[in-house]
Amino acid sequence: MEYVELICHTTAGVHTAELLMDVLADAGFDSFAENENGTISAYIQDVLFTNDLVSRLKLPEFSVLLASYEIKRLADQNWNAIWESQYEPVLIDGICMVRAPFHEKMAGIGFDIVIMPKMSFGTAHHETTKQMIQYMLSLQLEGKSLLDMGSGTAVLAILARMKGAKPVSAIDNDEWAYNNALENVQGNNFPDIEVLLGDSSLLTNKKYDVIFANINRNILLNDIPTYRKCLNIGGKLFVSGFYTEDLPSIEAKANETGLTIMSNRVENNWTAACFTL
User: Fold this and answer.
1) Number of C-alpha atoms within 13 angstroms, CB side, residue 123?
2) Taking the CA atoms of the chain, what radius of gyration do you get in angstroms?
3) Can you state the percent helix, strand and coil of the chain, rounding each to 5?
4) Which CATH entry fits the domain spanning 127-276: 3.30.43.10, 3.30.930.10, 3.40.50.300, 3.40.50.150?
5) Which is it for strands 270-276 and 231-243: parallel, antiparallel or unpaired?
6) Average pLDDT score over residue span 109-128
7) Where are the beta strands (DSSP E) in 27-173?
8) How far is CA 262 from CA 13, 237, 254, in A?
9) Is residue 235 predicted with pLDDT exceeding 70?
10) Smallest Cα–Cα separation from 263: which of 97, 254, 156?
11) Which listed CATH number (2.60.40, 3.30.1490, 3.30.70, 1.10.10) goes with 3-77?
């Protein structure tokens, strides 16, 4: 399969890169990389990179975020093989390993999670996923109902089941992530994890003791009231996917719904926070 690489030079702004990737994803780009020089590489199948799409890059929705760009056509390669060759296992706090099936299991690990790396978000390489895993490792989850919202690979849902949470649901609005999550819950022997394709509209009349939502600032601000309605009294909401400077607005929205912040974590300006009802 041949791909096109769009190398993006973004305009100034705290959230420009994140917003640009959201817009490009809506346009059909299916994977992204943040480069050391500050540019973003976005990838799309060659057959989908049409003249109409090139024309769209000049429209206001892109021009406010995209200062300039370069287009490269990439030779046909085994992209999954390349991804796998670059994929390294992640060890968190010395007790939780997230690895691919082609990595050897490490002795003495309390929580060994096997994730098939298919470019779904949630391989624990990103700071937000790592921080959410660290939060989860600190919890007593035996018998707790739990929601993994924006679940990606379902790594958080799988870890929750390993720690005794039940029932556990994993929801993502990306079909690729949904299919990957189905594969991963089966591969880790937790077929009872409920994996759903969709968004917060699926949460009507649902109740949970614990909710993990690793998404992005704008979706969190929109959906925190819904999460609040889903929380049982004394429940906890863990959120991530935003920058440190976004925490005040996230906290303000949570406070509006009656949630109180308990703690937060920061790594490389990415933040995770815990709220309680």
Assistant:
1) 19
2) 19
3) 35, 30, 35
4) 3.40.50.150
5) antiparallel
6) 78
7) 31-34, 40-45, 66-74, 90-92, 96-99, 111-114, 146-149, 168-172
8) 29, 10, 12
9) yes
10) 254
11) 3.30.70
Share the mean pLDDT of the chain. 88
**pLDDT per position as a tens digit, 167-212:** 999 999 888 889 889 999 999 999 999 999 999 999 999 999 999 9
Nearest to 147 by CA among 174, 130, 166, 164: 166
* 174-178 LR contacts (CB < 8 Å, sep 24+): 174/120, 176/30, 176/118, 176/119, 176/120, 177/120, 177/121, 177/122, 177/151, 177/152, 177/153
Query: What is the arithmetic mean of pLDDT over 10-20?
Result: 75
Q: Which two structure tokens, joined as six digits, stand for 232?
A: 């049982």
- CA 34, 66, 6: angle at the middle one, nearest 5? 55
Torsions phi, psi of 41, nearest 5?
A: -100, 125
Q: What is the pTM of this model?
A: 0.75
Instruction: Tell me the pLDDT tens digit for each residue of 204-218.
Output: 999 999 999 998 888
Residue type, 119: M
Instruction: Determine how many CB atoms are found less than 10 A away from the CB of residue 234.
Output: 8
> For residue 212, which of 174, 262, 253, 156 has the smallest C-alpha distance?
156
| Amino acid at residue number 165 | A
Neighbouring C-alpha atoms within 13 Å toward the C-beta of 64: 5
* CATH 3.40.50.150 boundaries in the chain: 127-276
Task: Determine how β-strand 260-267 pairs with β-strand 3-10.
Answer: unpaired
Q: Is 172 exposed, middle or buried, given 0-12, 13-18 or 19+ CB atoms closer than 10 A?
A: buried
pLDDT(223) > 90: yes
pLDDT digits (tens, 9 = 90+) for 64-95: 888 889 998 876 666 656 556 556 789 999 99
